[in-house]
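Forwarding these from the shared drive since the link keeps breaking.
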Amino acid sequence: MSNEETERWFDGGRRRFLASLGGVMLGTGSAALGAGEAVTGVAAQEGTPEPGERITSARRVGPRDVGAENYHTLWAYRKRQSVETLLGDPAVNDLASDWIASFEAYDPLTNGLDAVSIQGTTDLQVDGSRESGTFDVTAVGRQVAYGLVDRTTDELVGLEITDPMDVEWERGYDQPSRRRRHEFVLGHDEVWQHLDGRVWYPFVKVAEVITAYDDYPHGEVTPIAYYFKNEDGGLSLLSTFVDVSGEEFELLDVTRVDRFVRTSPMEMARATEPTGETALGSLPVPPMAQRPQITGPEGFHNIETPPSTIEQSSWEITWQPPQTEGAVVDASYDGTPVFEDLAAVATPTGYDLPERDGRNTREWFFPDDSPVFSGNLLYWDIHSPTFGGPGVLGTTDHPETGDHPEGFRLRTHFHTGALPNARDFHSGHRFGPYNYYINFDFYEDGVFMPSWQRQGPGYITEYLFDPDRRDHEGPVQYYLSFWAFRPAPGGADGVETHVFDGDEWQQPEEEVYVEGDDRTIVRFSHRTFSQSIDIPLDDYKEMVIVRPDEDEIGEATRVLDAETELDFYHPAQYVDGERIQGRPVVAWLVLEAPIHEVPHPSGISTFTALGEFHLSGY
């Protein structure tokens, strides 16, 4: 990248640059519900019964409350079942059947309960024009239905429907460089024919800085999209991709998308025939703590920002607010360091992949060992509060049970590509952006469990329902989650790396890329002290161990270090023979998400990828 291009990208500073990624207009008053505005209480509706102890004592489930396998199953299966149960109520069904866009959320609770919500809007209004480049968008009549579902009987035990509210936001292309791109796209008949005479507004999920497309490498193609009211009064989107690498732009693809997720609450409602009377008014209103955390107050995030240092359950953790790589966490256990700078640095999301044929993720995604993706489209998603956010939601205690000691969770959430606090995404305008939980679970017995949860949808329906978008025979969509950290068992200096291959322990002298199976363990120890960290792998986990380098992601910051960002594609690219034993290292944990293996489709089920760190000698 030339100095001129770098200056152009960073003109106006980091805040404006991050905002420009999604066309977000910050400081407009209606752009986001701030964390300080989060609602923490719920007023009971007149005449409804008070919730009993089973409801008020229920808490969010952690992975060790039910075991890793059951935790996966809860999120993959019960979310869909809970939505179906909620839609079985006549009042909820009648509400959802009228929506043109919708969104759902879920949290499994203890006491055999599922917290679920669905929300949607009935119309779209836009005040703006192609000439002005500014668009005031209103999602009309958003309402939320909250339910509590008994996991054993699939019956509602709590129910509320909120009053309608209009949700407003701004989109546009007032900046000269952005206007030039939109005018180029809108000047094509195959684009303008869908928008001319209709209610529409522009949407840009990401800039080319985190995109690879077809044979174009990281940094040359940008997506540009437009929401519009279609001929049936529904909501559709026009998805385009543009080569912006040269002086002259090139329109590479135009696709109309009428379904944003494979299965939506409004479609499920129309296919459901409820029976009996509504339970609305006869069941308790779900309390705030027993609602899905990302939709608790009027469909927005329920944020209770914890202190930056948390001392609990023998752990002391310090977290830094997200920039582009999510929250960054340092941790010590019983007063001794465990790791530094741990973060979910990137979520590569690939579409239209070739068959894997036994390859590791680097060879499969990047067979030429370059930032050119093997499939059709790849986003190296960032996790930023200004590019979807919101970031850190809060903490959840894990009380001691017969299955595990006490612990706690630091929970974060990101809608990469949406507006701050996801005003658009939570109103059902959700094609393109993503929906990630990134969690940090700590337990008193020295177990740490990082987890990444994907709830879609991204671009999956564009590739799933349009055969012309497929060139390969592999998965339609596949995710990776790249976590980086500095192991520091007893201290960051003097770290030794060991790999158990299922038969024996080995001690690689140089930087290494470890492909996992269910017998592989990576251990970090200290050459002087007794502390060690064991990280078991499996068929869907890999590790990369390299020396720190200020010119590599892991030391450099995603997107903000522009040239390093454009060179980045996979942590294995940094394995180049440097010696690692007895020296500080950066370790990368690669979690895979084969979402085609979950029982229900994107948007209505959640895929969970879990890691485990086990401490000893502390």
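-- next protein --
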Amino acid sequence: MATCYFLQPSEPNKPALKNVMGKAKLHVFFLLFLILSSFCESNDQLTQANSLSPGDMLISEGRAFALGFFSPTNSSKSLYLGIWYNNIPERTIVWIANRDSPISNHSSVKLTITNSSEMVLFDSEGRSVWMTANTTTTGGADGAVAVLLDSGNFVLRLLNGTVVWQSIDHLTDTILPNTRILVSSKAQVVGRLVAWKGPDDPSSGDFSLGIDPSSNFQLFIWNGSLPYKRLDVVNEVLVFGGTYQSTTTSVMSQYLYDRGDELYYTYTYTYTVSDGSPYTRVLLDYRGNMSLWNWNNTTLSWTVVTAMSSYCAIYASCGPFGYCDYTEAIPICRCPDGFKLVDSLNLSRGCQRKKALRCGKDNYFMTMPNMKVPDKFLQIRNTSFDQCTDECSRNCSCMAYTYANLSSAGGPMGNTSRCLVWTGDLVDMEKVSVLTENLYIRLGESSVQKNGELLKILLPIIACCCY
């Protein structure tokens, strides 16, 4: 509980205070010191012996985050329990407990820990509007304590140290750095990152972020149950290049951790030039845009580092075999060499081959560098580049492949390489300047001319068979 005490003279004592100030300068300095350095008792813990009410706050030990009650706007009567940054002037909410159950009457509202070691939020009528779904209550008879950490995580643990609930397992619209997020589990239902419904409405919106159920190697932004945007396929370790302000180079690294029956996502943000790393956060906004933000201590505002906000970022917007070219000033849909637009007035219909493939004939594999690879792939683990090439070239149904050597990446999932192959239309491709891979696309004989930008590889068809 954060309780601040300010030494102030009561109304009847004001004349006495003036007399003291007039008599002795030392007294003035002493009183000013007491007032200006009024002490705050900052508590990062909630116990069964106390409760949290509107106006109270928990503040993490390093004073990075605060937990308390807030309303989205000054005119709003809805009250929420949330976590926000404590040391910046712009209140930025990173987590909300009762986002879909706002409280309208603010009196007698309290957050408590019950005798059964559950954390419960009660409204003014004494009704439970939100509570923790503890993973275990073993040993809970001795009590529990909730702690707000400097990572922004709010943890409920038993007195024996067992964590029975934590806020990072129940995200809202924000991911904080160095936080391990459960994205897939065979033992439990995994939630998603869910955007706000509107700029001032924190209730659950239409857009969410979650793992691809058919593959544990990519995350999707979903619009309801439909794919809206797709993140890059994970190479176990992915590195984004970015800039903060105009002089400091920064690196964002994403990881997927495979723990047998569970899969975790995390990201780190590191500065190659030490200037006091600012706050960073990944936000999924109410419009379905996912972006990385830095806090700028000079302008005292949030700055977008990178964002998925263009038309091309929408899933399959360029159609089958089409790709979004992000290397242009304005991203635009294009066709690979050897393909042409199906309909120049409707780019979402995609591209078609200029020359049809014929099984048993020599086909080209054209190299497309700097690509975000397509969706709907098959994975072959721990093969060489030649084996990956052979796997695709000897099967007439294979339309493309890509290969990544992971032996030096130090990936947490333990694979030395990753071979992906595609047996159908190539959907949702992008040409980008970071996170790049070479994509090898099968073309019919003489479909393209040699040029300096794209490399052709002539590979014999060893056998004609399908996956």
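Residues 3 and 169 are 29 Å apart (CA to CA). The chain is about 5% helix and 40% strand.

- D.
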